[in-house]
Design goal:
By secondary structure, this protein is mostly helical. The chain contains 5 helices and no strands. The longest helix is centred in the N-terminal third of the chain and has 37 residues. It is elongated. The two termini are about 30 Å apart.
Length: about 160
């Protein structure tokens, strides 16, 4: 695949992911929290705080998508291996770690307060979050090494 096609595909994927995240955070998650609140009358007071807490977890996801968009823009400029992209990948890794930690704390909190078996879903989300963080940190290291090699080769005649 040529670079312009790759960049269009990647940016299209980012737009699709952003739309899916928006639907999840605006519709699916609040609806599921409200349903859980109705099923358990003793925890109905947790509906609004729950929706707010889940909405906060969208912030690192949005930041990661913006960083990924910026990486794709650099790829479009034929500047894939640069220090900026390495730091953006590190930023994506930290976003994944922050969101994973936040999810773990939220899962434990919900388990304690509600007794709902959300820990299974929380464990899956945390596993995926850790895998994304690991991949982003690894790619950051590789891009940094490649950027250094590129800079070294640019200096040689």
């Amino acid at each position: 695949m040529k670079r312009p096609g790759l960049v269009r595909t990647l940016k299209g994927t980012i737009i699709f992911l952003a739309a899916m995240v928006a639907v999840c955070y605006a519709v699916i998650f609040p609806q599921r929290i409200r349903e859980t609140g109705m099923e358990s009358a003793g925890v109905s007071w947790l509906v609004t705080p729950g929706i707010i807490a889940v909405s906060i977890s969208a912030i690192p996801v949005a930041i990661a998508l913006v960083l990924f968009w910026q990486i794709c823009t650099e790829i479009g400029r034929d500047n894939s291996f640069c220090h900026k992209n390495a730091s953006r990948l590190t930023g994506i890794g930290f976003c994944a770690l922050v969101d994973t930690g936040y999810c773990a704390v939220g899962t434990v909190t919900v388990e304690i307060l509600v007794g709902s078996p959300v820990w299974i879903l929380g464990l899956m989300v945390c596993t995926v979050g850790l895998a994304i963080a690991l991949a982003a940190f690894l790619l950051s290291h590789l891009v940094l090494k490649a950027a250094d090699m590129k800079a070294e080769n640019d200096l040689t005649i």
